[in-house]
């Protein structure tokens, strides 16, 4: 029926709109346009342009009459100011990182200048461009003579190799723009271009193999790039988390200890004494037969949807239930993402026929029935798909300040709440949910300690195997994903810490009787993906001051 799909129009028309919505939307469009023009991440021209851009926006924000703003307007003001300050600080950090790799890449600026001249529509001098390319080849040969494992840190060499990848893409794009279209250019530049590309590729290979320690035909060692304690503290302030890294590690260890105790209880029920590792081994072998994983995911998804609706826990719009979809993760992608990923589309891991026997066993065991049960509601409803659906429809201007502490915290919070409400049903199901909870606790411990410099990547892998029960290949993929991909330094701690924030907020507002269950969860979804301290201010209608700083001690 039509009314199943159409929302309450009066509710939409009566929805409150922040005074700063237009400001957010203008910033978002301008930022995106500038990013398309200055698209080379490592380019100093880009850093300079964005530094000016964010400083100008910071000055414009200062002109806003803060005292005249509503509660939601004040929240938006503080969110926007926080975003601008974080962007400026990240540019400072990028400047430091570039300075550290500069001695290894003396040819970086000349190559980037070629592309910038093209973007400025400067008239090309083919002979001068060829001279720059010839100079690149000579500089590569010279710098290679000075780089040794004794003089160069692996982290800096690894970062330089990744910058070389970016330089090669930039150089190729620049060359294709002119080659063939300007016969003078091709006559002058083809030979020195080919030589410089070959030299850059060989240099990147040299850095990876001779300095970082990669072996031909094998995956690179996990290196990462720890940011240090002061940068962690600055990032935590941006996320409005008034805790030190060490305090957060202690919180995570407390939660991990609770998980281990519950694991031992489940082990006793299943006849394994106190040996929770044997319990995990038992559960890992309870997987569906090949070809049946999509059916399992479908059934698990609808089981959870029925559970939250029958208990009136959160509003699930009919359209949200109707549009989610499922795709299988390709084998090569499973090396980096060995488990499910989700949102409107849930991406499912499972072995394929062309995997090796060991790879098939790892995937089967890592995506067994009971691990999958906890993963499905994390990724779909009431987790990522539901919040994504609602976030697109309420306070959507706040997407520019989205934080993983809300995004991932919301999904893990529901794992915790469903546990408390008896969704687990059996010891095997409890083990499946506990496995992922231990996983999130371990992420806090290993990622913060890595960035503090107290754990190596290999120790992080060992920690996941010993303290969570991961398959070693899956543990390696998890650590690689944490430190080698596009995730910011605090992303992996956001699951547990964000969930603890939502859990503390529920105790404050729902357990005390100040809000009912469904309105509480619906209100969170409508705040959009902002720091949870600001969610708390919105739900309690706290009139914040212009100089507000984070102070909520949610884990004490």
Please, could you describe this protein's structure?
- By secondary structure, this protein is mainly α.
- The protein has 24 helices and two strands.
- The protein has three domains: 79 residues; 108 residues, no CATH class; 311 residues, no CATH class.
- Helix 16 crosses helix 18 and helix 20 packs across helix 21.
- The longest helix has 31 residues.
- The relative contact order is 0.10.
Summarize, please.
The chain is mostly helical and 556 residues long.
The percentage helix is 55-70%
The proportion of strand residues reads under 5%
Uncertain residue ranges: none
Q: What general outline do the C-alpha atoms trace?
A: globular
Q: In angstroms, what is the radius of gyration? A: 26 Å
What is the subunit arrangement here?
single chain
Count of discrete structural domains: 3
Distance between the termini: 49 Å
Task: Name the structural class.
Answer: mainly alpha
What is the H/E string?
Answer: HHHHHHHHHHHHHEHEHHHHHHHHHH
Mean pLDDT: 92
Main β-sheet, spatial strand arrangement: 1-2
Number of helices: 24
Which sheet architecture does the biggest sheet show? 2 strands, parallel
Number of strands: 2
